[in-house]
Amino acid sequence: MAMKTISAHGTLNAGMAIEVQCGNHRLIMDQPKSAAGRDLGPTPLEAILAAVAGCFGTIGRFIAHQQKIELRGMRFEIEADYDPAGLLGRDPSVRPGFQELRIKVDIDADRDGKQALLEQIEQRCPVADNLTHGTRLVSVLL
Fold it and tell me: What one-character DSSP code corresponds to residue 85?
């Protein structure tokens, strides 16, 4: 199958809010008021957690369809740990990203192999793959 490219276009104007156009959709990320934002949307780190849930759910549906599993729904509880000293530049030895990301998944399906299904979801989720295997980042000035 050929490679596919997706894109997003974003803008940071006054304040902390970032508006990103993703296809036909607009996503606003911001910081809480306690961090100089206006709380207009999730923080970028919270958006990562939402992306993991979205990806797990989507891939779960794909797998259920492929394996003819009746998947009535899924519920997610996601949390991650990070040290703000890294992203704030207070301690250059501290990694700015997540130290660990934990996801609890409740799968509503008539199937004994829910753990195997969860493992397949984790293996096929591109968001999880990007987080666990590190994707090369190339940034350039326009």
Answer: H
CATH code, domain with 60 = 3.30.300.20
Question: Residue 32 carries which DSSP code?
Answer: -
CA–CA separation, 129 vs 122, rounded Å? 8
Percentage of the residues of the chain whose pLDDT score is greater than 70: 99
pLDDT tens by residue, 78-114: 999 999 999 999 999 999 999 999 999 999 998 688 9
Structure-block tokens of residue 18: 């970032």
Number of domains in the chain: 2
**What element of type H or E holds 21?**
strand 18-22
Tokens 């957690």, located at residue: 49
Q: How many CB atoms lie within 10 A of CB 121?
A: 24
Same domain flag for 34 and 55: no
Pair of tokens at residue 111: 């199937």
